[in-house]
Amino acid sequence: MRELTSGRVHLREWRDDDAPFVLDMCSRWEVQRWVGAAPRVLGGLGDARATIARWRGHDDGLRGVWSIRRRDDGAPLGTLLLIGILASGAELPLQPSGETEIGWYLHPDAWGHGYATEAARLVLDHGFAGGLDTIIAVTYPENVASQSVCTRLGMRHEGLTDRYYNMTCELFTATA
Ligand SMILES: CC(C)(COP(=O)(O)OP(=O)(O)OC[C@H]1O[C@@H](n2cnc3c(N)ncnc32)[C@H](O)[C@@H]1OP(=O)(O)O)[C@@H](O)C(=O)NCCC(=O)NCCS
């Protein structure tokens, strides 16, 4: 997967030895409560390794899941996802909608510095340069912090939707 670098952040693939950081970030309810349709915290290093394997499985050459690092010292900050989004439906497992979503979550120690927005800007530009026309983001209706990232990125707020994940979400779109 393509490594991406801006002024303060460096994005690279997830590696097995990142498991302790993933566990530290994803065992916190203040992070995980906003992640996915059925939020849960990770319970141990085995869970973290499985999460990393799942993230790596999203790599299709353009899309994928990146580890966000601070550029100057390589410190891990969080994760940045550019992946296919699943459509709502009666059939389980849910099926791909054909659309691409961007998502982010950072370790709480890294909140409040603009790192999520900086990393997401890199990945939006990468996705559009790679030929994507539209990239969407969905958030829980109460997730003001993530909606603020969407707004800082210049994404358009489309209101509530139930089109994805069998959930009601706030929908944001960015177009090339
Ligand atoms: C969503 C999440 C990534 C947002 O993180 P964040 O740090 O608030 O977002 P940004 O990276 O855009 O940083 C913006 C903040 O950094 C501040 N900041 C400080 N220095 C900055 C700089 N040099 N440049 C830009 N912003 C800076 C901004 O003022 C802003 O703070 P404020 O909201 O108090 O005004 C984080 O809250 C999180 O991980 N939440 C849990 C998981 C989650 O909800 N994921 C999204 C699921 S949809």
TrEMBL record:
One of its GO terms (molecular function) is acyltransferase activity. It comes from the Bacteria. Its EC number is 2.3.-.-. The keyword Ribonucleoprotein does not apply. It holds the Pfam family Acetyltransf_3. Residues 9-175 form the N-acetyltransferase domain. The keyword Transferase applies. Keywords: Acyltransferase, Transferase. This is GNAT family N-acetyltransferase. It comes from Dactylosporangium vinaceum.
